[in-house]
Predict the 3D structure of the following.
Amino acid sequence: MARRGNDQDGMVLRVPRTAAWPVPRLPHLPPAPTEALRVVQEAGYLALALAQRLQANYARHAAALGLTAAQAKVLLALQPNEAVSQRALADHLGYDPSNLTGLIDKLEARAEVRRRPDARDRRVKALLLTPAGTQTRTALWTALTNDSGPLAHLTPGQAQAVRDRLTEALADTAVRRGACVGGLAQHPPENRPNERGLTATSSTPRNLQ
């Protein structure tokens, strides 16, 4: 049984209630040919299940502050007392700049972000956190860092082991595929997430988000 969670931009998360997520059997298709590949396949599905639970937990904390998960990502990406162009912020988040506009509009309407002309080029609008935005950002970060979320049932040793194995897996992927630059995942323009956290080629929300 799965439960559904919606954010204000229409994102839907389906989070399994059980601890394990069995690998689905697709009709008329054989399973992975070797035990080693079956283990890799199962690890991948379990990682996706954990990611969905983490996304749901992130969205829950954002919603408690009246934010969508995507709006929360923008607030956390902006630094207090530092102005940044919308394009630079979009590149940092892996968003298309045009899709970021709607998110900024909503945050500006909440008086948490403001636009101002860039000091070097007045044709460019710089984005800046307001005092209210800084307060919301701090509250969100405090809530996130004080909640173990889906990993709360693990012992400290188990949590460290999960962290270490995920770090190894992601580092190897980045080296082999060039997936990360400067520690941030890069997305081709045609597959960048829109303001709902969705890519053009997938219906899976992208968050933490």
